[in-house]
C-alpha cells in the first residue's frame, strides 16, 4: 500500500510540470504562427501602396492576384485577411508550388525555405510583379521587398532599383516605413 501511495504522490507532483510544458508548447506554437499573420497583413497592405503598369492591370474587372510560395499557414493567414478589395479590385490568393508558373501573379511572396528554388525555376520573376521575400540576399537576387527581423520587430527593406526594373512604383507612404537598400545588398 505504501508503494502505491508513493507512486501516486510522485505522479501528482509531475502533473503541474506536465501541464506547464503543455501550455509552454501551445504558447510556442501560437507565437510561431503570429509572424505568419503579421507578414500576411503587411503583404496585403503593400498591395494597397503599389502602382502597377497599365499594361499589367488594365482590366478593372480582373482581380489582383497575390501568389505565395510559402507554408500553408502563411497562405491561410493571407486568405483570411484578403476579403476586402485593393484599389477597387477583388483579391485572389494562389498557392504556388516551386515549379508553378507565376507569370499571372501581381504580388509574389516567397518564404525563406523556398527562395533559392523559386529563383532557379522562375528566373527572378516578371515585369509588373511585386516580388516579396524574407531571406538575406533576396534583394540581390531581384526581390523588391524583403522582410527581416530587427530585435523582435518585423521590418522590411525595399530596392527602388528592382522596383523600377519590374515597372512597379511604390507609394511614398510605404517608403517612409522601409529601409531603402541598394540593389547589390
Q: Total number of helical segments?
A: 5
Helix amount: 40-55%
**Form type:** globular
Rg of Cα set: 22 Å
CATH level 1 name: Alpha Beta
Report the biggest beta sheet as strand number plus sense, adding barrel if it closes.
Answer: 7 strands, mixed
- CATH level-3 fold name: Rossmann fold
Q: Which residues sit in consecutive blocks of at least 5 with pLDDT less than 50?
A: 14-34
**Overall pLDDT:** 81
Number of domains: 1
The termini sit apart by 71 Å
* Strand order, largest beta sheet: 3-2-4-5-6-7-9
CATH architecture: 3-Layer(aba) Sandwich
| Structural class designation | alpha/beta
Order of helices and strands: HEEHEEHEEEHEHE
Question: How many beta-strand elements?
Answer: 9
Amino acid at each position: 500500500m505504501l508503494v502505491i501511495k508513493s507512486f501516486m504522490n510522485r505522479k501528482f507532483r509531475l502533473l503541474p510540470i506536465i501541464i506547464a510544458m503543455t501550455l509552454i508548447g501551445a504558447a510556442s506554437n501560437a507565437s510561431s504562427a503570429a509572424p505568419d499573420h503579421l507578414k500576411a497583413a503587411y503583404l496585403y497592405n503593400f498591395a494597397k501602396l503599389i502602382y502597377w503598369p497599365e499594361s499589367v492591370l488594365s482590366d478593372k474587372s480582373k482581380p489582383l492576384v497575390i501568389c505565395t510560395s510559402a507554408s500553408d499557414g502563411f497562405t491561410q493567414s493571407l486568405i483570411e485577411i484578403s476579403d476586402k478589395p485593393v484599389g477597387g479590385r477583388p483579391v485572389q490568393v494562389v498557392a504556388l508550388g516551386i515549379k508553378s508558373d507565376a507569370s499571372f501573379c501581381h504580388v509574389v511572396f516567397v518564404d525563406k525555405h523556398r527562395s533559392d528554388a523559386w529563383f532557379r525555376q522562375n528566373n527572378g520573376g516578371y515585369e509588373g510583379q511585386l516580388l516579396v521575400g524574407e531571406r538575406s540576399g533576396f534583394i540581390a537576387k531581384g526581390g523588391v521587398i524583403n522582410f527581416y527581423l530587427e530585435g523582435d520587430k518585423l521590418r522590411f527593406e525595399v530596392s527602388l532599383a528592382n522596383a523600377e526594373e519590374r515597372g512597379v512604383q511604390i507609394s511614398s507612404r510605404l517608403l517612409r516605413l522601409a529601409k531603402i537598400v541598394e540593389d547589390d545588398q
